[in-house]
Amino acid sequence: MSVFVLRRLLTLLATLVGASLIIFLVLDALPGNAAQMLMGADASPDAVRALTVKLGLDQPLAVRYLQWIKGLLVGDLGNSYVYGTPVGSLIAERLVLTIPLAIMAMTITVTLALSAGIYTAANHNKLGDVGVMSLTQVGIALPNFWFAILLVLLFSVRLQWLSAGGFAGWEDGIWPGIRSLLLPAISLAVVQAAILARVTRSAVLEVLREDFVRTARAKGLGKREVLWSHVLRNAMIPVMTVMGLQFANLLAGTIVIENVFYLPGLGRLIFQSIANRDLIVVRNCVMLLAAMVVIVNFVVDVLYAFIDPRIKVHDL
Amino acid sequence: MAECSNMPLIVVDNLGVRLNTSRGPAQAVRGVSFALTRGETLGLVGESGCGKSVTALSLMGLLPDSAVVTGSVKLDGDELVGLADSDYCRLRGNRISMIFQEPMTALNPMHTIGNQVAEPLRRHKSYSAAQARREAIALLDRVGLPDPARRVDAYPHQFSGGQRQRVTIAMALACEPDLLIADEPTTALDVTIQGQILDLIADLVEERGMSMILISHDLGVIAENVQRMMVMYGGTVVESGPTDEVFRRMGHPYTQGLFRARPKLGARKGTRLRTISGTVPELADLPSGCTFSDRCPLVIDQCRAALPPMVDVGPGHFARCIRTDVSMAERVGALTA
């Protein structure tokens, strides 16, 4: 078990190092000089050069990369080119919104997907199965920003239950914050839930065909008991794999959805920083997203070993 | 339990099963009838697809929902055909148990073997977790699993095929069923293990006074392990009788074909195995009349007209053939072997 975790940790570290290299090199290769952007097109070449030196952009590539990594390790991400404030606190402010949003969206996704997937598998080829599966087909085809606008039309414009955008913050308690994140979370969740529901359904159906399901029935267990006590745990491996991958999709989705709902989250920060060529912010945000995705998938890998007793032995 | 031991435990009368296959509806079992008293053992022999496993699953009530079962199956006088699943659940694993062919896949890889053996006890006898665990260890010990107290918490992948089959036997016997159905219990095992497992089953059946239905395609296994046997072909029983009687003098050309097709020790190198010419008919597309008529060396027009009746050919010995006068003149069986 510990060997298994250790090996996965090493993979995780290697992935992070690789991601940091790619992020750094790609952003460095982008055309456009940050100093030039900040000073405007009319700035004198001397002034631009001075700012370039001040920002450390004249240093060789390797030196700048190592400086960035050193900063990441001690928690000093540097200052934003545009705002002049520390990138760390800039990101922290935005995470207060984006992390709860991601958690809410993932919770909605998993709840919808598991119930729909298990229900349809248990009622395979019956009316409920066909109906719910048609719905998921529609769900997969929906662009989330368009669905978000439909939600705003219904719940904000027509019913006036929730606000159409903006973030209430957490100062007045938890509910106003959650209310303002509800529509964005639903729009993020619907597509993911539709995909995950189909994965869950086919995983459960596959396990239902296994011999040990018949053995369990031969022992006198009812269909429902077999589903809960024998089938689900076996079906969870593919479902969790997809869940881990979907987390990455979900984070990418926040960039669009936070713009639709005018939410000051990490996605919007990335969007604005790209527009402003505030590359130091972009670089750190993208690194953070990469780290989140890698860590979530690491957790999924470790959970495999908890769910499936066979994995421990094979990997020891 | 055995108040009146001469009353049959299970009576199957004119059992029919229609399955909905991808090739359309197929009559997998037709007109199967037999009775089994307590402690009696019955063998079902036939090729794959002859309906022997479907017969077993219909006794267990475990056929797919789309299957249509006709006829009657009575356990101690109570009708099982058409029984609600919740009522059937009280019988399965409790009064009727089944051992399956594939020990490698018949156990849930995520649960410890102890929990899987304890499950029927907890369900049918309402044992506490501790009680069921103690009983599971005792059962695992009885089926010859080494060091059961320690290995009760191990997972199926930590056992060999033979050991896993011992575990499924322990599971099937947990609630001391009246009837044990063993569906090719040794087919997936090494030859060296097969004998051990069959001996174990035979010992347990005798020790607990259970009735047993043993399903096999192996005539040798049937000859050594059951008192009575039925040969199935194309969903019908083509021959039935006391095992010794059938082996002494086989009545049906199909049974004779199976017997001739068995490999023989001491055969000259390069000798080809005898085969039954032709292929097993599709259940969705059975010939009218005798199901074996397309492959039978003795076939006459009359065979194809209608399904032949069971003909009495010896003490308790029947063959579904109108040409037993010719087939039995050849004297195939232990008499000539």
Automatic annotation (TrEMBL), chain A:
InterPro entries, per the entry = BPD_transp_1_N (IPR045621), MetI-like (IPR000515), MetI-like_sf (IPR035906)
The residue ranges of the ABC transmembrane type-1 domain are: 95-304
Bilayer topology term? Multi-pass membrane protein
For this protein, the record's Pfam families field holds:
BPD_transp_1, BPD_transp_1_N
Where is it predominantly found? membrane
Transmembrane ranges, per UniProt, are: 95-119, 140-161, 181-199, 281-307
May I have one GO cellular component term? Answer: plasma membrane
Keywords assigned = Cell membrane, Membrane, Transmembrane, Transmembrane helix, Transport
One annotated GO molecular function is: dipeptide transmembrane transporter activity
Q: Where in the cell is it found?
A: Cell membrane
Family (UniProt)? Belongs to the binding-protein-dependent transport system permease family.
What is the protein's name according to its record?
ABC transporter permease
Q: Which organism is it from?
A: Bradyrhizobium yuanmingense
Upper classification of the source organism reads:
Bacteria, Pseudomonadati, Pseudomonadota, Alphaproteobacteria, Hyphomicrobiales
Automatic annotation (TrEMBL), chain B:
Return the Gene3D superfamilies for the record.
P-loop containing nucleotide triphosphate hydrolases
Query: Where's it found, cell-wise?
Result: Cell inner membrane
Q: What is this protein called?
A: Peptide/nickel transport system ATP-binding protein
SUPFAM superfamilies from the UniProt entry: P-loop containing nucleoside triphosphate hydrolases (SSF52540)
Into which family does the record put it?
Answer: Belongs to the ABC transporter superfamily.
Topological relation to the membrane, as annotated: Peripheral membrane protein
What the protein does? Involved in beta-(1-->2)glucan export. Transmembrane domains (TMD) form a pore in the inner membrane and the ATP-binding domain (NBD) is responsible for energy generation.
Q: Which UniProt keywords apply?
A: ATP-binding, Cell membrane, Membrane, Nucleotide-binding, Transport
Any one cellular component term from GO for this entry?
plasma membrane
Q: Cross-referenced NCBIfam families, in alphabetical order?
A: oligo_HPY (TIGR01727)
Quick one: signal sequence residues?
none
Q: Which GO terms describe its biological process?
A: peptide transport; transmembrane transport
Origin organism is: Bradyrhizobium yuanmingense
Please give one Gene Ontology molecular function term for this protein: ATP binding
